[in-house]
Structure prediction request, 331 residues.
Amino acid sequence: MSDLKTKYLGLELKNPLLVGSSGLTGSADSILKLVDYGVGGIVLKSLFEEEIIREHEKNMKEKVERLESNLEFLDYFDYQLKEDNFRRQRKLIDEIKSQTDVPLIASINCYSVGEWFSYAKLLQDAGADALELNLYRIPSKINIEAADILNGYYEIVRRVKEHVSIPVSVKISPYFTDLGNVVSRFDMLGVDGVVMFNRYYSPDFDLENNRIISGPVYSSQADYANVLRWIAMLKEQVTCDLCASGGIHSGDTMFKMLLAGADSVQVVSALYKNGAAYVRDLLSGVQSWMEKKRLDTIEDVHRMGRSMIPNHAEVFERVQFMKYFGEHGKG
Prediction:
């Protein structure tokens, strides 16, 4: 039987399948069920920067309105709020680690440069094996330039790296003009991995009830193509690990991501749709392809993928689509 063991962010994984940050990874019961079905690692449900800020503001308003000039007390209150979040995370991590040795990657969803990054150190102290920074902001402010947004992301990474010793990855958007350069910059800043790509909340109009609602929540099988493209194009150009995220709904697609060079894959929507037991189907699908192709290890899969990809990236660029589209229907 083929061996699915691999490394991601320097962590030993029994297989490349990670469950991405979501409601599935927010409680010990759910996480332990996923572990029982064989996942290689867990990305804990994100702490959202906005939620941290709102919680701070709500408590400040309710509890310390008459003490707002007492800076010493306000410093203490800020510390106490962080400690409360820290204790909740530590309780969750302790409960999981008491029953399994599956790697746990903590997650912070962040977009601004501020003192909140001290949570990264708290998550490390809570026992997280690594940290994932989910970086994205909607660039809706017309007076903010792209360079300013990017420099903010880079500063977040610098500050977090200064405060923690555990591995750090960044989960990013595909919506950069210079995506390859952005990934390279993160690589040079010393991140241990880059996750491609975020999935966002998409608002929609409910025409019948005249209100704003959520658009499609889950990814679809078709979403994997852009992820595969960028993993394949960047794998040989950066030294950090690459993790595929988005549209991975079958063992076939998971195997394709590994061929492209992904060191791990993150799955969420497929497990919401099919249940936690679907982990076994995904892993057995990869196992079947490895045995069919006579590949013994994940490194063998990577080597096979590199042998299929030419030295230039043209096969993954738009010109090829134009070529094949132009030939469609001929003959």
Notes: The longest helix spans residues 71-97. Residues 53-64, 66-81 have pLDDT under 50 and may be disordered.
